[in-house]
Amino acid sequence: MKRAAIATLLSAAFLSAGLLLPAISHGQHAGDAIELDEAKPAALAEVLVLHATNDGSGIDPAIGDLPQLKQPPFSSYDSYKLLERGKLDLGPSGEMKLPDGGKLTLELEKASNDDKGKGRYLVAAQVLKKSGDKFVSAEFKTREGVYFFLAGPPYEKGILVLGIRLAPKLK
Amino acid sequence: VSTSNHKNSPTSDRDHRDAGDPSDWDSGDWDAGDWALMRHLDGELDPDRAKELDALLAGDETARDKAAGLALVAELLRERVDADARADGIVDAVMARLDEAPSDESEAEPVKAAPSSGRVATDRPANDNARIIFTLATAAAAVAAGLFFWGTTEPDDGVALAPPAEPPAELAPLPTFAEEAPATAEVEAEEAPQPVEVAAVDFGSQSGSVFYVSGQNAATAVVWVTGGEEP
What we know:
The complex is a heterodimer of chains A (about 170) and B (about 230).
Chain A: H1 2-30, E1 43-53, E2 79-90, E3 93-97, E4 103-113, E5 119-128, E6 134-143, E7 148-154, E8 159-168
Antiparallel strand pairs in A: 1-2, 1-8, 3-4, 4-5, 5-6, 7-8
Chain B: H1 3-7, H2 13-19, H3 23-27, H4 30-41, H5 47-59, H6 61-82, H7 90-108, H8 118-123, H9 129-150, H10 174-190, E1 196-202, E2 207-213, E3 220-226
Helix pairs in contact in B: 4-6, 5-6, 6-9
């Protein structure tokens, strides 16, 4: 009789485990959703205004560590000088005047945190000519602290290159 | 085969306890007799003891029925499990536990303390083959359920005694997972945490290009306008 009892227990154990396993798997999938933080759009933007020329002066040390400037398309100019380092409070938009008389406007369209808690932003950038006409506009999806660039406005035998990066705004 | 001959045989005491007294079969003691049969079927008894059981089987139809049932159970288990490499070791483990059970029981109490009585007989099933059938069914169900638990197997139509091997309803969600996987991958690709990317660009009356340049820590995006006129 013990043999029959053991066999019964074994079958019950296997059957129970076989029925429970799919239920456990479903439970794990149900908890995988990541809730994003949809805060009111706000951020700080740092803007580097660079003057790109081929005057042989090299890269201005004041610019800091930007190895991208030695790679194409930046390498089409051999010299970069820092003209201005500005900060914009994007709540949700901000603007700054450029050396050529034009204007840079930034508008923060969306701000959220990724699964590592880093800020991710959707920001619209627009460069206007001195006349007020649009020179170029673009939308960037960017992670906090990473530079993106707008380049091309002609300026004194060279062009302006705008390096922009966003950071969370401390409350 | 007499009890006195059995007791005087050269086999060990444990072997006698495990094998049980052949007279037990006459009295309907399933445990001891069945254990002896199992060992005999597995070729584990010494030659003298095996001869005794052969002689008993030759003259006892009930014993032959039990032997046939036990042999069938063992054969089904082996066929089913040997065909599936994932079940390596399970039969050995199960059989080891089964082998231990009667031994423990025999150590806990005498193999046969008293001859069969009317009272004992009424405690047992009227048809002793019911136990064999019950054991057969539960063992087959256990093996089938165990294989289902360890993974998805193709239904084996060749095992008629394992209906639980039919795909149960719990397998139905599998296609759902298969459909969700590409959707998740697509979302992750779309939401892929590229450090920066250009979502849209308008060069206006100028021409231009979008570049992605690798940086020290992360790639960056560049909107490069060409053909601009002095303001």
